[in-house]
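Example 3.2
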Amino acid sequence: MKIVELTTYLEEYVKGLDALMRELSDVAEVTGERVRMVIDTPNMHQYAVFDEDGLMVGCATLCVCHTPEKVIGFVEAVVVAAECRGHHLGRRLMERVLSDAKGFGVQEIHLTSRPQRVAANGLYQALGFDKKETNVYQLKTK
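Structure, written as tokens:
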């Protein structure tokens, strides 16, 4: 298994990311345009886990946000393919993301995870994330 940051756009990434995102949500729709935007945006970092056959089996996105107060990282869309879970790929992926975030000057990292994702929540806590009591708001503009 290898973990890489996707730095150039390849059409095959769209299919791999779409399959993984559909494990998080039935309504997920990954497009080439969106993948290209993530890869081409300087403060966005798309990571992928590839198996020995070159199949994408995991991913995570790190968004680095500069504010007047600090540099914040947001980790989004972390998923390992169901058939590959239980082999510490999620841990290895998150360790890479966290290491790179430190290198980008990120001072704190935020992520959200549904309570039903018991293993994922356990991993985040084992990595040092604290559960924060807060209200999360969402406004859909489309």
